[in-house]
């Protein structure tokens, strides 16, 4: 793996109190921002070979909207892979799932807080706020180095509210 993109799902809805947490869908803002972030990644030449998502509805919807926005720019290498373990995982689970996908050149993984902030903090040594639809972009060093923390280097952290996404709106 050369590039790892870690994304928090887009903004979700709390309108239906009868839904379980993993069944909450994206709200209107989430449905608008997710494809814009996909178009942004494509504009940075960061279309992933593989998209791996939590099984939670809001994460899967985010993955589908991202993939659709990037598909017009470049062909994705595979379908979206849903991984149960990315629903509220520990940092050690994140690391294991990342290691399982090292054969791809560029991977986008979509999950949830607090796990994403904990993972990014473990890698960088600093607290990094990861609001909805934020993406942390890491370069990945060679396998010869021992720990994932030593192999990952934060290259960029994109938060939707800090980007001008207007050029990607239809």
From TrEMBL:
InterPro entries: His_Pase_superF_clade-1 (IPR013078), His_PPase_superfam (IPR029033). It comes from the Bacteria. Gene3D superfamilies: Phosphoglycerate mutase-like (3.40.50.1240). This is Phosphohistidine phosphatase. It comes from Thalassoglobus neptunius. The lineage of its organism: Bacteria, Pseudomonadati, Planctomycetota, Planctomycetia, Planctomycetales.
């Amino acid at each position: 793996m050369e590039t790892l993109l870690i994304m928090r799902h887009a903004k979700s809805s709390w309108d239906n109190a009868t839904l379980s947490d993993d069944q909450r869908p994206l709200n209107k803002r989430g449905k608008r921002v997710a494809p814009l972030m996909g178009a942004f990644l494509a504009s940075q030449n960061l279309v992933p070979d593989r998209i791996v998502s939590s099984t939670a509805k809001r994460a899967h919807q985010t993955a589908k909207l991202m993939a659709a926005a990037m598909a017009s720019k470049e062909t994705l290498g595979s379908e979206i892979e849903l991984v149960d373990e990315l629903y509220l995982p520990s940092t050690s689970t994140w690391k294991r799932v990342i290691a399982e996908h090292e054969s791809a050149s560029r991977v986008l993984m979509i999950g949830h807080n607090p796990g994403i902030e904990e993972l990014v903090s473990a890698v960088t040594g600093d607290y990094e706020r990861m609001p909805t639809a934020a993406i942390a972009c890491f370069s990945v060093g060679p396998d010869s180095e021992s720990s994932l923390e030593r192999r990952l280097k934060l290259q960029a952290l994109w938060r939707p509210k800090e980007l001008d996404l207007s050029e990607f709106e239809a």
